[in-house]
Amino acid sequence: MAHAKPEGCFAKMCGIAGFTFDDRELIKKMCDVLYHRGPDDSGYYTDGFVSLGNTRLSIIDLETGHQPIFNEDRSLVIVHNGEIYNFKELTATLEKKGHRFYTKSDSEVIVHSFEEWGEECLKKFHGMFAFAIWDATKKVLFLARDRCGIKPLFYTILEDGSFIFSSEIKGILQYEKVRRVLDLDSFHFFINLRFLPKERTMFKGIKKLLPGHYIKLDLQENKIEIQKYWDIYPAIEDYPESYLVRKLRSLLKASLERHIVSDVPIGILLSGGIDSSTLVAFASEVSDLPVKTFTMGFGEASDELSDARYVSDFFGTEHHEIITEKILREYPEMIWYADMPKRNLYPYYVAKEVKRYVKVVLDGLGGDELFAGYEWKYQFAKDVMAEREKIPKELSVKIKETTRQLMPYICTHGSINEIEFLHSLKRLAFLEDNVDLYLTQISLDEVFYEDFLRNIYSDGLLKTDLTPIRCEFEEFFQNRLDLIDQTLLADFKVKAVDDFLFVEDAMSMANSVESRVPFLDNELVEFAFTIPNRYKFHDNAGKYILKKAMTGILPERVLKKEKRGFGGNIGLQFSNELYEFAKQMLPEGYAVKNNLVKKKYIEDVLSFRPSISLFKHYTVIWDLIAFEIWYRIYMLSDKISKPSSNLNSLV
Length: 651
Description:
This protein is an alpha+beta fold. β2 and β3 (about 50-55) form a beta hairpin.
């Protein structure tokens, strides 16, 4: 694939780690366990106060960029994971201010930017990153994460005040003084949401640094400061549609051109939908050679293989298909890379195939959250708003009480037809409560009710109270936006970051592949949140303005394609793989023994052969299988090491 040759180099995708004491052996150990994130190089720094390390995956300007990197007098030192797309412009500005560069790496641009502007430099960066800078003169350690949360950063503070950080939790766990304690509240969040929002991890005391935030540790004053430096909020502008089309098309093309800069081949994950097809279309414009595209299928009729093949033929890409019928084939290894129990780790198999051909891959993540791609959510929100207009306030209270009494019974005992009826009842049950309306859409749906959880949880240890989960999302619904815009905001700020981007980063880096997400370009994101939602969800269909922008560029078949979720058929997968493993692992598993989950619930579900009416229970069972695997790897082993890929080895 053709690519632009930059006058400089982006940082290499990396694993970074560090702590506020001197231990060269430990920092090397932490970086060793992150080897998959950067198998091409490694570097370390210690000075009696801090230890920093990095592992590097070489992408651009393969001869330079060895980290750690310093400023002129070596008073500042950085370890950096990510890419600063506007580093050439910043280099020129900084050179005019007298800064001297000894590399062509964008990591050095960050160092000099911090030297010149302090934490204000973060507002100047255009890209994805997680980095740590040590100011040896002031004895200040400064860490930051990019605006959209594309790159991860985890940290913990020990009882003695020591601060430890890493690109992955397993790096932190290399220090024997870090206690591995299950956070029961996080288990509760995991069962209901299938991901952990915001700062949460499965380990008590280990946190994520939030997107658009920085941490500043002053070791002399013994102070820690955590601050938000960027946020997004819909600032709706009533532009003419023609302007929106022109502007969006221009921003998409500019973003794509920034993201394809590389000295190694680049591929694109292609589903055949509008997001990934947009990337293929613009990449094909600037490519002298066929674009490499990759698609994954599950051996099912609902696969998107034929759609992707059509787009590949239309643009003449070099296309590769990955068929994965056995989802659990390498599941323990996938969970080890993810550092947490997770169900939707399928991108691991795509990245494993991609690695054979390219080091860098573009993904269409973000398009759904910016342009209302999840049509069922926004139709649901639209229906709720319409019903609010029709139902008198005094009547809505009585309707809410009645429907909430019906739902627990249907959730626990209902057939598939009754479950469909439940979706209609939900709008009435939560008619005046936007947070619950939203959470029933992103969670396991029917699981998000206290009565249903009482059938799952053991008595006493876990509370079925859903208030803590609601509290994590309230901020997105306490404003004057309508329900569609509130949903878009919550999806972008939490669901996209802590579910989809988390999985994408963990599974691509597991295979030493760098994943780039052009839809999360700074300018594109900020512009998208000025567009009225009527240009996003229009005539009961999502991505209206994106489709308009791509009309004449993408074929009609792509523009008219219905949105599909990425993943296999739960019932089929349960029949093929999950059922037998669930019987072996769960009844005497650690969730039961530790009094988290009722053994009777598991036995009751497994006493029925797989059928579609048990879908809601299969999702819980799969989550519990993921938890059992995670628990055995991370809580029972003396050493956090990669397990056998064979699931039977953990049974």
